């Protein structure tokens, strides 16, 4: 019989080539082949069973879940512009919250509407083969501008076959909600949105804008309750995005920068930063900012104020930006002459 643990291990290795050899043999057979006592055989079987559990092969269900997580983390919703998609590495992430902030007239709503059309294309053309839920919290939904964008899809999406552009009924797959206060927004996100997402009718939620309700409902002294409600709202949005593999875009307003520390929440070159402070900033995965510049660009009979879309922070993106302009058919990147 082996005198110590080292001799015991060497002896077993000589007799048995793998854990399976141990588990396939009965106690008496193991005792005969290894010359171990009954208690030592039981200890050997326990150790072999533990080793088997540690190296248990992955099941089909585990593979399915891991593959789903990998595909979801790499899935993107195209911005319908090659310049912006290059900046965003394919577009808005699925299963996360993206924030787009900027001053009034910067083009935030324009890009939000464009994404509502982009989501309806199949994945091979940058979409998610589904619709969008557009939640307005302050202004009326810009239906005329949406119709103009729909009419210009063949121009904006020249990469898509004309037969596909003509067969998509864009306006039938955009669901519009107006929420005048925070409570109605929470009701929409807890009842209406899960119903649409669960039926596969939408995979994009746009909240335009997230700051307006908090600015009108809370005073400066209510910061504790305000932050609590912000966390509740972000929790609801995170749940919807992750449970239903959806992309969430929150359009945000801006506030003036009074200190260098506040400016860290926005582009260093800007005199404004996104509203709602650090409590909200920690809830979004991607923060984008649209800046309205002083220059004007022209194209044929059209002219547009030049804008710049900048990445403020994102775990997978470089802090960079691209110039864009708003044309009749939508938001497109602009390459300026050097």
Automatic annotation (TrEMBL):
<keyword id="KW-0233">DNA recombination</keyword>
<dbReference type="InterPro" id="IPR047348">
    <property type="entry name" value="XRCC3-like_C"/>
</dbReference>
<keyword id="KW-0547">Nucleotide-binding</keyword>
<keyword id="KW-0234">DNA repair</keyword>
<dbReference type="InterPro" id="IPR027417">
    <property type="entry name" value="P-loop_NTPase"/>
</dbReference>
<dbReference type="InterPro" id="IPR020588">
    <property type="entry name" value="RecA_ATP-bd"/>
</dbReference>
<dbReference type="GO" id="GO:0033065">
    <property type="term" value="C:Rad51C-XRCC3 complex"/>
</dbReference>
<dbReference type="GO" id="GO:0005657">
    <property type="term" value="C:replication fork"/>
</dbReference>
<feature type="domain" description="RecA family profile 1">
    <location>
        <begin position="73"/>
        <end position="254"/>
    </location>
</feature>
<dbReference type="GO" id="GO:0005737">
    <property type="term" value="C:cytoplasm"/>
</dbReference>
<dbReference type="GO" id="GO:0000722">
    <property type="term" value="P:telomere maintenance via recombination"/>
</dbReference>
<keyword id="KW-0539">Nucleus</keyword>
<dbReference type="GO" id="GO:0140664">
    <property type="term" value="F:ATP-dependent DNA damage sensor activity"/>
</dbReference>
<keyword id="KW-0227">DNA damage</keyword>
<dbReference type="InterPro" id="IPR016467">
    <property type="entry name" value="DNA_recomb/repair_RecA-like"/>
</dbReference>
<protein>
    <recommendedName>
        <fullName>DNA repair protein</fullName>
    </recommendedName>
</protein>
<dbReference type="Pfam" id="PF26169">
    <property type="entry name" value="HHH_XRCC3_RpoA"/>
</dbReference>
<dbReference type="GO" id="GO:0005524">
    <property type="term" value="F:ATP binding"/>
</dbReference>
<comment type="function">
    <text>Involved in the homologous recombination repair (HRR) pathway of double-stranded DNA, thought to repair chromosomal fragmentation, translocations and deletions.</text>
</comment>
<keyword id="KW-0067">ATP-binding</keyword>
<keyword id="KW-0238">DNA-binding</keyword>
<comment type="similarity">
    <text>Belongs to the RecA family. RAD51 subfamily.</text>
</comment>
<dbReference type="Pfam" id="PF08423">
    <property type="entry name" value="Rad51"/>
</dbReference>
<keyword id="KW-0963">Cytoplasm</keyword>
<dbReference type="InterPro" id="IPR058766">
    <property type="entry name" value="HHH_XRCC3_RAD51B"/>
</dbReference>
<dbReference type="InterPro" id="IPR013632">
    <property type="entry name" value="Rad51_C"/>
</dbReference>
<dbReference type="GO" id="GO:0071140">
    <property type="term" value="P:resolution of mitotic recombination intermediates"/>
</dbReference>
<dbReference type="GO" id="GO:0000400">
    <property type="term" value="F:four-way junction DNA binding"/>
</dbReference>
<dbReference type="GO" id="GO:0090656">
    <property type="term" value="P:t-circle formation"/>
</dbReference>
<dbReference type="GO" id="GO:0045003">
    <property type="term" value="P:double-strand break repair via synthesis-dependent strand annealing"/>
</dbReference>
């Amino acid at each position: 019989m082996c005198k110590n643990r080292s001799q015991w291990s060497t002896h077993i290795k000589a007799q048995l080539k793998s854990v399976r050899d141990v588990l396939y043999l009965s106690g008496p057979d193991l005792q005969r082949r290894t010359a171990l006592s009954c208690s030592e055989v039981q200890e050997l079987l326990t150790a072999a069973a533990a080793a088997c559990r540690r190296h248990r092969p992955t099941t089909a269900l585990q593979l399915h879940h891991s593959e789903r997580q990998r595909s979801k983390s790499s899935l993107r919703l195209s911005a319908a512009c090659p310049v912006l998609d290059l900046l965003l590495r394919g577009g808005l992430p699925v299963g996360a919250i993206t924030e787009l902030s900027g001053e009034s007239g910067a083009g935030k709503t324009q890009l939000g509407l464009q994404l509502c059309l982009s989501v309806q294309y199949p994945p091979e053309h940058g979409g998610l083969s589904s619709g969008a839920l557009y939640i307005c919290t302050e202004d009326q939904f810009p239906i005329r501008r949406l119709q103009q964008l729909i009419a210009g899809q063949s121009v904006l999406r020249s990469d898509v076959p004309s037969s596909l552009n003509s067969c998509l009924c864009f306006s039938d797959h955009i669901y519009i909600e107006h929420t005048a206060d925070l409570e109605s927004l929470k009701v929409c996100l807890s009842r209406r949105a899960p119903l649409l997402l669960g039926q596969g009718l939408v995979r994009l939620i746009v909240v335009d804008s997230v700051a307006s309700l908090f600015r009108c409902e809370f005073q400066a002294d209510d910061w504790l309750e305000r932050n609590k409600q912000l966390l509740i709202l972000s929790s609801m949005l995170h749940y919807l995005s992750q449970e239903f593999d959806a992309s969430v875009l929150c359009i945000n307003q801006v506030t003036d920068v009074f200190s260098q520390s506040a400016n860290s929440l926005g582009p260093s070159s800007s005199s404004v930063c996104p509203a709602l402070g650090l409590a909200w900033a920690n809830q979004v995965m991607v923060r984008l900012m649209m800046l309205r510049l002083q220059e004007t660009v022209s194209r044929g009979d059209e002219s547009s104020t030049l804008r710049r879309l900048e990445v403020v922070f994102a775990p997978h993106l470089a802090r960079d930006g691209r110039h864009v302009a708003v044309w009749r058919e939508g938001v497109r990147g602009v390459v300026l002459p050097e």
